[in-house]
């Protein structure tokens, strides 16, 4: 490795591995009780209906068992809700965050400076939100989009200022607390996250970005993202996530609800790099109306265990859905990801492309579901799963499940699993590359379908994260 490459590697490591001394204005006690829920809701000055929804979600959580039944799911025995801190409000004077980057406390500003948030905003993103621990600390939306009626704010502010919309959509139609145990947990103690509303026929031409950062040891982060794209609108939302490395486990259990109106188009892109002690257990789902289009672009790095299966319900005729995912698992990691699509109307279309890489005994798994309902004639789906392994210690599996209840449909599935071939390495070495560079080039080509869907600065970052994972430099 050249000295220049070493400096680049060290700089990138520093961006994700640094940690700050914890400073908070309010911190809930460990564990999950009704009293904890009431304290969180009171600290946020929430309306009574939101407290009631939290308490109902808590009851669902208490009744539901931990996820079981699927073959070889990640081991969640270490996940103890009573051992985590569910809510930390950072020490910042302005509740709901600030609009001017300069108004942030120095230690928080320094954290996001290192992660590149101000630079991302300077690169002409439509809006930027930054969450630190349980609260949004910075939120900005370009004035030109606000004039067109676009709303981009944190969820806590949305509950206060856009109550009618939030009350209609929040965990009622898309991801109810009864969906699964961690959706119920999320519904009980959610905090922060993003609210995006795009009016009819408005196209937000540049991406909207949110970044979520866990800084404290042994905490949980439960941000909620709600996107409502009205008829004929279009928006691209990008989410980044990170946490420093600690000895105690952290829990991330976010919730994402997307409503894609008739003829609307939403793209949801995620690049996440949780530390190797984080359990990443999210629920993400979209409802797509007539001729609407939903796209999920996901890059899953880091975490000790991930269970993540973005889902789309194709509700209206002609609705479409596209999933492109990449997962990387190294030593001690179990990355269980996939996609779910429900074809509930005629002429609907879905494509799923999954890429996974495993090394040093890591495990990746594609777990997916495609359901085509009776009457959803002329629907089509294509699923492609490709896995790349570095050694004999690593494993990669594909578990596609298809429920086809209509005969007039087009269904295709393809899966490949392989190792990096010696002949490929030899060919590239004969062209002047060393062994590491040759492997990196092969992996970069392997993940190109996802990187080409991201803005250039995110594509470069994702490639760099994969390179560092291959070198064993993170976590």
Short synopsis of the structure:
The protein contains 13 helices and 26 strands. It is an alpha/beta fold.
Describe this structure in words.
The protein contains 13 helices and 26 strands. Strands 5, 6, 8, 9, 11, 12, 14, 15, 17, 18, 20, 21, 23 and 25 form a 14-stranded mixed β-sheet that branches. Helix 7 crosses helix 8 (163-169) and helix 10 (422-429) crosses helix 11 (435-446). Strand 3 and strand 4 (135-141) form a beta hairpin. The chain is of the alpha/beta class. It has one domain. It is globular, with a radius of gyration of 22 Å. The longest helix is centred in the first third of the chain and has 16 residues, at 48-63. The protein has helices spanning 3-17, 34-43, 48-63, 106-115, 117-122, 143-146, 155-161, 163-169, 181-189, 422-429, 435-446, 448-451, 456-470; strands at 24-27, 88-90, 127-132, 135-141, 151-154, 194-198, 208-213, 220-221, 224-229, 234-242, 250-252, 255-260, 265-274, 278-281, 283-288, 293-302, 305-308, 311-314, 320-329, 334-337, 340-343, 349-358, 363-372, 379-389, 395-404, 409-419. It is 26% helix and 36% strand.
